[in-house]
Design goal:
Helix content is 31%, strand content 26%. Strands 1, 2, 3, 4, 5, 6, 7, 8, 9, 10, 11 and 12 form a twelve-stranded mixed β-sheet that branches.
Amino acid sequence: MRIFSFALILAIGLVSAPASARKIAYALPPPASAPGAVKPVLAARGAAPADVSGFAYLDEARSVGYRQDFGGMGVAGGLLLGPFGAGANALAIQKNTKQEAEALRGKLPFAPDALLQAALDALPPSDAATREAKLLPSLFVTRDKQERLIFWTIVDVDLDGWKGRYSRVLPQRVALAAATAGLPAEELATLEAQLRESYVQTVTVMQRDLEGQAGEFAKSKIMVEALSPRFATAVKYEHVRRDEQQTLIRAIAPTGAPVAAMGFSGVLIVPNSEVLVK
């Protein structure tokens, strides 16, 4: 049985340690491409991803996923009671996730493919491109202690066999109760525009990274609540870049696991309003 909070921390590879001891494969870009040489395009979807325990899909295409970390005593509390306590708490968390996902299904009518295509259409054309980066978008939804939904726009990348993942969290949050009751059309339109802009920002960071223009990264101790809302804590990351508007974090290299089902990976893009520097 997967324990999400701990799996999240382990998957990101956040805690600083000697490379020889940890041997973590961080999400590093491929050899830099010339500016404008890579054209981002929407990839065709293959087989639908399989079910993952404690992770629910909100749409038929299985491109919008939901997972939360609340229920019972919480995973940390359950561990104090031994394996049976941990198992019971994990089941309580999974039950809450299933119930909330069922209440949300059909209430967030967003299509990541359409949102990403609109974002690509809004970017400058790549007329001189000689390579294509095939992008597969998804949307990950979770919630915080105040029962507000947190949205991550995620783009998986395939560039001539190199695999990457870029994820950006929206600074805007939506009350879970309001979402399950059904957001007014105007609020849905506003949220859709915010998601579309988040995909624009996600692809922009991806392009800079592929061109070797993402800048210098360094160790930094920060807290990002959106990564683990129930057990948010400051962690020393190995690869962080912070500019005037956002913070980039290189987590571990992505795998073929469903997005966020086994923890975050790739490059994380976090608006500075969502980051606390320690």
